[in-house]
Amino acid sequence: MDLQAFLITFREALEALLIVGIITSYLKRVNRPEFTKYVWLGAGLAIIASLGLALVFQVILDGFASMGSQNYMKVGIMIISGILLTQMVFWMAAQAKDMSGKVQGKFDQFITTGNIIGMVIHAFLVVVREGVETVFFFAAITGGDIGQAIQSWGSLAGIALAAAVSFFFFRGTMRVQLKTFFKVTGAFIVLIAAGLIVQAVSILQDMNIIGSVVPHLYDLTWLMPEHPIDQEHYIRDTGHAPLISGDVGVFLKALFGYASSPSLEEFLIYWGYYVALYLLLRGRGEHAEKAQQAKSQTQMKEA
Asked: DSSP letters of 83-123?
């Protein structure tokens, strides 16, 4: 859970800090530093709103648990979180190409009209979006205990690293391109999303809401059980220890949805998710490339 919290917090905090950093840097470059305080005001209000949302959401989750509906709650949160994480990958694939230009264009309008409220609201929405997603993802990876994720070393380390990366990025000391940076972190986010979705399917099958054509497609318990308890049972039944400890298995299960004995449906959904995501991203990239080529040809004709 700590590593999941680290990756999620790092990704969300970095995204927010980069956009806020682009805004404040642009305001200084156009000699309008007096507007910077309004950007930070919006960001500060967004952090307060996100913490308030976490508190309200936790009360709602506790209410579901008291009614004995925590499994339904977990499944719903896992599926929605998987969808949101996937959407984040698509959003960053589109935004990372010209994030700076789009943000600066928006603030040009605010500066021209002197729209201070617009600056505050824009900064608020940028940061609160990441805060809301973080709260939802924390609920998914902890099974409903948001406070546990917020107080973990993973979330604190994620925020600290995001702040450090943002600082060095704007100081010009980082050589890694922003697009490449988001591709790497996005790959880990995709693994987490696939794990959440397949774990939701597993819970639904355990609750007999979804059946299974092949309950156990294969069994890798001999290699790496998905929990220390499974390891104990394997040693008891065979007299041999698995090659890799169940402590590693439970870690990979929590992080990436590893299953030592998955059903056919889990297997198909897990790998089908990657295939579908690859095809969609590839198709979107080809469409964007064709659109750019058409735009370039039009500009050349006009010239």
From this structure: HHHHHHHHHHHHHTTSHHHHHHHHHHHHHHHT-HHHHHHHH
